[in-house]
Write a structure and sequence with these properties.
about 450 residues, Rossmann fold, 15 strands, 15 helices, six-stranded mixed β-sheet, binds pyridoxal-5'-phosphate, CBS-domain
């Protein structure tokens, strides 16, 4: 019979997938190591079970024990899967930077989750690591793995990720690229690959604002500044970052990380997190100066499912001013107008009584509405125009909208660009948004004024 004893049998042995469309103008082959295909959807599944089994062997974790860890989410999942199989309780401490999806996922796996402010400085009581350490001290029969210094973290990659890559590429890989969180992935994998072939280049991908690039180049620890990508980068230097196995660290902006993570989904069907975009950005920058003889492998760290409310959402990207202006479409503007989404588009029918129309506009706080029949715009009404007509002839109040309506507002397709919308609004107070033959939104001049301009280092 062909089955695994439990879900932990599925951890590791993840496939390599070749990129094609994103790399079509590049000479080297770039391969994605699909760690998002682990049962917990991230690279951290490898260290979850490894740290628990090391603790069991060392007698640090007893039956019925409670595992407590500080995590950006993925290590928590790796630990929670192993804890579920082995019958341990879990308490995870995360910062409020972590996505809602990750918090819900951990709770769904039976863990308690404590969320602390991301702004708390390392070493202060509110910091997520200090909080986890305190809870561990206060909880009887508890085990605090501390992924930032536990040997089983880099060792898990030395004994699994490294050997897999060597075997899968028949030792032909020339470059390995990875994000750096605790440092476990790049240090363990890097140590193994360097032992096999010291010429293999190990490249770290680091968000602007994190300490690793400067530390690698100067040995100094800079003052970290915030960035949005999750799971990588650091403000303090973890014991598990072994710089001697890393040749170079490159900085990548949130904008580029998120843009490439989104492109991996759209152009290669690889649905992944932002830190994967960070690694890919570093791999692409590298590849531009290399020829066909280079074989680059980068880590797909986790699934995009964790970020549906974040960088995989146009609204969030727009809100964070990370969406390219040319990506701002009529559809996106009408969808992200604060509380008024397409479902609350105010329209009137041609046969609606004008007095009812005025009441509806007043209640909704709008001064202009489209007249819509069967999903199509047949006219428009503006409050001040109606009122001036009604002042001249009160009977109009009891008449239908069709009697006082004016020509329709311009109608644009949902994919129309920001500049097309802006052009129409120069001659009309509003434009309508149409999708598959139905009016789904309205955009006024106000709505466009708060359409974002991109910030480069975001
Ligand atoms: C999404 C994501 N990417 C990358 C990493 C980096 O892995 P490591 O901690 O092994 O450096 C992490 C670590 O938590 C992560 O969550």
């Amino acid at each position: 019979m062909n089955y695994y004893e439990n879900v932990l049998g599925l951890v590791g042995h993840t496939p390599l997938v070749k990129l094609n469309r994103i790399t079509k103008d590049l000479k080297p082959t770039i391969l994605a190591k699909m760690e998002n295909l682990n049962p917990g959807y991230s690279v951290k599944d490898r260290i979850g079970v490894a740290m628990i089994e090391a603790a069991e062997q060392a007698g640090q974790l007893k039956p019925g024990g409670t595992i407590i860890e500080a995590t950006s989410g993925n290590t928590g999942v790796g630990l929670a899967l192993a804890a579920a199989v082995k019958g341990y309780e879990c308490i995870f401490v995360m910062t409020d930077k972590a996505s809602t999806e990750k918090v819900r996922y951990l709770k769904a796996l039976g863990a308690d989750v404590v969320v602390t402010p991301a702004a708390a400085r390392p070493g202060t009581p509110d910091h997520y690591v200090s909080t986890a350490q305190r809870i561990a001290r206060e909880t009887p029969n508890s085990f605090y793995p501390d992924q930032y210094s536990h040997n089983a973290n880099p060792d898990a990659h030395y004994y699994s990720t490294g050997p897999e890559l060597w075997e899968q590429t028949e030792g032909k890989l020339t470059h390995f690229v990875s994000g750096i969180g605790t440092g476990g992935t790049i240090s363990g994998t890097g140590r193994f690959l360097k032992e096999k072939n010291p010429n293999i280049r190990i490249i770290g991908a680091d968000p602007y604002g994190s300490i690793y690039k400067t530390y690698k180049e100067t040995g100094e620890i800079i003052e970290a500044t915030p960035y949005l990508v999750e799971g990588i980068g650091q403000a303090t230097l973890p014991k598990n970052f072994h710089a001697q196995y890393v040749d170079e660290v490159v900085n990548v902006s949130d904008h580029d990380s998120f843009e490439l993570s989104r492109q991996l989904g759209r152009l290669e069907g690889i649905f992944c997190g932002g830190s994967t975009g960070t690694s890919l950005a570093a791999a692409l920058r590298l590849a531009r100066d290399l020829d066909e003889s280079a074989l680059i492998v980068f880590i797909v760290c986790d699934t995009g499912e964790h970020y549906l409310s974040k960088h995989h959402s146009d609204e969030w990207m727009k809100e964070k001013r990370l969406l390219e202006p040319q990506k701002i479409t009529a559809g996106l503007i009408s969808e992200t107008k604060g509380e008024r989404g397409p479902e609350s588009l105010i329209t009137v029918a041609a046969n609606e009584r004008i007095s009812d129309v005025l009441a509806k506009m007043n209640e909704a706080g709008v001064t202009q509405v489209p007249v819509v029949e069967d999903g199509r715009s047949v006219g428009s009404l503006r409050e001040h125009r109606i009122l001036s007509k009604v002042l001249g002839n009160r009977d109009l109040l009891d008449g239908p909208a069709s009697e006082v309506m004016e020509e329709s507002f311009p109608v644009l397709d949902v994919d129309a660009s920001l500049s097309e919308v802006t052009r129409e609004l120069q001659s009309s107070p509003a434009v309508l948004v149409e999708e598959y033959g139905r009016i789904t939104g309205i955009i006024t001049r106000h709505d466009v004024l708060d359409a974002p301009t991109i910030n480069s280092r975001g």
